[in-house]
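Final report, closing paragraph on structural work. Over the funding period we assembled a curated collection of sequence-structure pairs, and we close with a single example.
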Amino acid sequence: QPIYATYKKYKLWQVPPNGQGVAGLIALSGLEELERRNIIPRIEKEGDLAPRSTSTMHAMIEMMRLGFGDARSYVCDPDYAPNSSSSIDYSSNNTESGNGDKEDKTSTKWLLDQKRIGDRAAEIFQPNKAVAQGIPDSTSCTVSFQVVDKEGNAVSFVNSNFAGFGTGIVPDGCGFTLQNRGFGFNVDDPNHPNSLQPNKRPYHTIIPGIITHHDEDEENGKDLLYATISNMGGYMQPQGHMQLTVDMVAGGLDPQAAIDQPRFCIVDGTQAGTVLLEDGVDPNVVEDLQRMGHNMTPRVSGYDRSAFGRAQIIRRNRDTGVLWAGSDGRADGCAMGY
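Its predicted structure, as stored:
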């Protein structure tokens, strides 16, 4: 079953582990808790968004580091989790139990526990200093499409063979290469939840996303579609989903404007990884982040912008049914009606 985190009045949905979507959900929940606990200013308009606001950019980077810290430590094939003999409830999100270490840390119930995330964020986060400073990995080669019909049914789809030509192995008589997802295993620690084992699924970067309205449709009890999203690009994907959600939900940007926003990327998908800042981030924000101690590379431009991935969004107005799409100029996609 898909998993979600709530941000303001919306839910961001992701595929469950062994996918990495939980990293972005932890980051989004942490950001929500920092706002709710008045640790950072509330993000309520376009001027509050990351490219122009040091406070927002700093908080989002720090929360993304915490999300990757959890994901790279605990995300694995749930069938091979340390406590896999007991069922893992993927739908139990945002629990207020706060049982901490008493629960299976590979379960989404523990990973997405709102109190755990909020307490950890509040304890670690410092408004004027980068402190949430893992195992570098590379990026991938991916395709995505988003489809929404007039009834509001939606598909968010992403596929990849990982790392260009995947394994580089072409099956006899076939015209494609085999995927290289085994690269996602942790081969350094045999006791790690994501260690290499036969018939086991690795940490997976592919995470199509959907955003729904948090308040359910009274007629059928189902969450109504807000948007379908993807942000192809290896470990950029949960980071992109987090940033796109905040840009649209908190900043009020339309899909194309949200996609065009300059992004940040923790390039190797670890808690300690270097942060890339895309060219276009306010220079004052860049200087402020450097003073805070962020390990970062600013003003990334040209072909190197591929590190920030390629996003696709379709947003639906739940009152009129009108669809509004955006496609990333960092790649060769497009938005079209049918």
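The first helix runs from residue 21 to 36. The first strand starts at residue 3 and ends at 7. We thank the funder for supporting this effort.
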